[in-house]
Design a protein that fits this description.
heterodimer, A: mainly alpha, Actin-binding Protein, T-fimbrin, domain 1, three-stranded antiparallel β-sheet, elongated, B: alpha+beta, Transferase(Phosphotransferase), domain 1, five-stranded antiparallel β-sheet, 6 helices, 38% helix, CH_dom_sf (chain A), Parvin (chain A), cytoplasm (chain A), actin binding (chain A), cell adhesion (chain A)
Chain lengths: 352, 159
């Protein structure tokens, strides 16, 4: 139900996003957050004023380049120098780079270094467009730092939307942290994308890195080291649920899979034929939830009002809505809650 | 059955079950109804189901107008939809048949909404009644009569 009632808020302007994009999880600690928030409010206000005063010029000249001087109680975190020697981290970086290069091979993009190549949002944009199969409305090439940050903000907003993260959530990445070429948020972001889009790669598990956090306290710098967890333990391809008969089927009798598929298609078509529809391929024709909703009505003896779902879904969100709606119908008529998430069903990649 | 009752609500009766659509968009569906000797219909609220209990499921699309099958309640003229349902009721009274009895609800819904399937008025039915049915289920919701307009027609037909 949660997915169904998820409010479809209009796309917020980039400036309004400033509230959460600047928030790192450090804001949770003590009064730091409050102080920072006041600063953010002032920033947003200034930006608003600026936007009104100079309508012809959309770029905002605030946000000076990061200064190295720390304010009182301000914190900055950086990777421990020797963290790069960790073989697991190296493996993770290698896997991620391979994955990005695989995805973007047809665009002739080759990533060599995560920090140096991803900070400006250009490749993140291409990556998300490829994964989401949806074009982002951002300028192709940006040179200025301001332009890069604006672009990055739009890309990250789209990432958060694709991942289904609520706008108020404390994401582990932000425009500032990625643009400052900080590896940790970049890794978090990529790992989340890999997990969400079920990328066909296997991430090394339980990778954590040492992060040095420097904080200015009463005029002097103090630092401490914390462990930041990048990946945890996952099952194959990120499936987090108990194994069922289908897993056994996939593992032990891949040859029988075609037989099972065939009988499922026969069953589905027996019902869908009544409304002059036919399915030929389960992989490609069920991910948008349309046939699933219609099938529910056919086998349970009800009509599904056409305003409750998208008969011809175009976007990923509409497909997810449809699948979630069909799942709701299944539960309403007394079936068990499906183990798959609607997003998993709608996440259709053309198989190789 | 009281027509005035229909005026503010959407009542659908089938096999002694009633579907009532209030204009507030709250609906009781599938409440068992009982007809007293004085022809008052009573609905057993104890067993009644409300529409929010069966979101996305429409069990009797044959009585619903094409636009009711396709559009959200807020986007359609509820009284015009009710008039369509009323026409199907009149058709039931005239023919003593169940509309599209041979089709499943999903088939009926898809065909009525998208393929232009309509009930047909068989010959041998009073021309007044068949004319009334026809004007009540005008394809254009805006051209269907209101219940205020239907009442005098029914009164005339009684004579």
């Amino acid at each position: 139900m949660a997915t169904l009632t998820r409010p479809k808020s209009p796309r917020p302007p980039v400036s309004a996003k400033k509230d959460d994009k600047d928030e790192s999880f450090w804001d949770k600690i003590g009064t730091l957050g409050r102080k920072k928030r006041i600063k953010e409010v002032q920033e947003v206000e200034q930006e608003g004023k600026h936007a009104i005063d100079s309508p012809g010029n959309p770029t905002n000249p605030d946000l000076a380049p990061e200064e190295y001087a720390l304010e009182e109680n301000e914190e900055r975190s950086m990777l421990e120098p020797r963290a790069y020697d960790d073989p697991k981290l190296q493996e993770l970086i290698f896997v991620l780079i391979e994955w990005i290069n695989d995805e973007l091979a047809d665009q002739r993009i080759i990533v060599k270094d995560l920090e140096e190549d991803l900070y400006d949002g250009q490749i993140l944009q291409k990556l998300l467009e490829k994964l989401n199969q949806e074009k982002l409305d951002v300028p192709e090439v940006t040179q200025s730092e301001e332009g890069q940050k604006q672009k990055l903000a739009i890309v990250l907003e789209a990432v958060n939307k694709a991942l289904g993260l609520p706008r108020w959530s404390n994401t582990k990445w932000s425009v500032e942290s990625i643009h400052s070429k900080n590896l940790v948020p970049i890794l978090h972001l990529l790992v989340s994308l890999v997990r969400h889009f079920r990328a066909p790669v296997r991430l090394p598990e339980n990778v954590s890195v040492g992060v040095v956090v420097v904080q200015k306290k009463e005029g002097s710098l103090s630092h401490r080291t914390i462990k930041e967890e990048i990946t945890s333990t996952y099952d194959d391809l990120g499936m987090r649920c108990e194994r069922d008969a289908f897993d056994t089927l996939f593992d032990h009798h891949p040859d029988k899979l075609q037989v099972v598929k065939k009988s499922l298609i026969t069953f589905v078509n027996k019902h869908l034929a009544k409304v002059n529809l036919e399915v030929t391929d389960l992989d490609t024709q069920f991910h948008d939830g349309v046939f699933l909703s219609l099938l529910m009505g056919l086998v349970e003896g009800f009509f599904v009002p056409l305003h409750d779902f998208y008969l011809t879904p175009q976007t990923f969100e509409q497909k997810v809505h449809n699948v979630a709606f069909a799942f709701q119908l299944m539960q309403d008529v007394g079936l068990a809650k499906p183990k798959a998430r609607p997003e998993d069903c709608s996440n259709f990649f053309p198989q190789k | 059955m009281n027509i005035e009752f229909l005026k503010c609500k959407h009542l659908l009766i089938r096999d002694r079950r009633a579907t009532i659509q209030f204009q507030t968009n709250l609906a009781i569906v599938n409440g068992p109804i009982f007809i007293d000797e004085d022809l008052t219909a009573r609905i057993n609220m104890a067993d009644a189901q409300f529409s929010f209990q069966q979101r996305g499921r429409c069990y009797y699309p044959a009585w619903m107008s094409p636009e009711a099958l396709q559009k959200k309640p807020g986007d359609r003229n509820l009284e015009a939809c009710d008039m369509w349902s009323f026409a199907v009721l009149l058709w039931e009274l005239a023919t003593r048949e169940v509309p599209f009895a041979d089709l499943t609800p999903m088939e009926v819904g898809m065909k009525v909404a998208l393929e232009g399937l309509r009930i047909t008025i068989p010959p041998g039915i009073s021309s007044h009644l068949s004319k009334l049915i026809r004007i009540c289920m005008n394809e254009d919701p805006g051209k269907r009569p209101t219940f205020d307009m239907v009442l005098p027609i029914l009164d005339k037909m009684k004579r």
